[in-house]
Amino acid sequence: MKRCIKHPRFLKVSVLLALGSISSCILLSQNADPDAQVSSPTGDEHILGIIPNYETVSDPHKPVSALTVRQKFNLFAKETFDPFTPASAAAGAAISQTDNDDPKYGYGGSAYAQRFGAALADITSQNFFSDAVLASLLHEDPRYFRIGPEFPFWHRVGHAMSRVAVTRTDSGKTTFNYAGILGMSMGIGLSNAYYPAASVNGAEVAKRFGTSLAASALFNILPEFWPDIRQKIFHHKAKS
């Protein structure tokens, strides 16, 4: 699960989401069933029925075949063109608009439209380079692989966040996440072509890269714990 975060304010939102997920999972871990696993290899396609979750392999014990090039491009398309994407871009543009944060297009309706378009372009380009093009060329798997509730809670949090830098190859080996890091860098580099001059300099580019990297790491926490949360919710509903 990848998200393009261009400003520290967006990172704060990501931190809040991650902390909320962690808090819920600490409570769940006190009496979670280690054998409770979802049957589908990819789990729910939407977390809470809203957030796209197409790139998560939910069952860590079930063998999973390598993705073909076509399947990687399909994953990119499903993740990018999900209705949640323009909604999150619109929210991000609104947050940026409040104080004329990056990209510094100014104020007013025209500036908001430019911010919204830039946010969509950022998400699309980073996903395209990382999940489709580079993952195919470098034979890396763009999916997130859960380790599941049999591991300690904080180990799972560390695993989730580390996947921003570590991934699997198509053959199942562990490798540095070249596709993710290079794709993120290429998307940020491309954004310099349509960002206003005030937002295109070394410091701003470095800040965008750092916040994007941190947000991608934080966003991995939710798909790691979502099957546990979902099982707990539906378990309680079934008992009531």
Counted by DSSP, the helix tally is 8
> Any idea what the shape is?
globular
Q: Structural class of the helices, strands and pairings?
A: mainly alpha
Given as residue ranges, the uncertain stretches (5+ residues, pLDDT < 50) are 8-43
Could you tell me the strand content as a percent range? 5-15%
User: Going across the major beta sheet, what is the strand order?
Assistant: 4-6-7
Mean pLDDT across the residues is 84
Radius of gyration: 18 Å
Helix content: 55-70%
| Gap between N and C termini | 33 Å
Q: How do the SSEs run, as a string of H and E?
A: HEEEHHHEEHEEHHH
| Tally of distinct domains | 1
Number of strands: 7
Largest sheet: 3 strands, antiparallel
Give the tags:
7 strands; single chain; 58% helix; mainly alpha; three-stranded antiparallel sheet; 7% strand; two-stranded antiparallel sheet; 240 residues
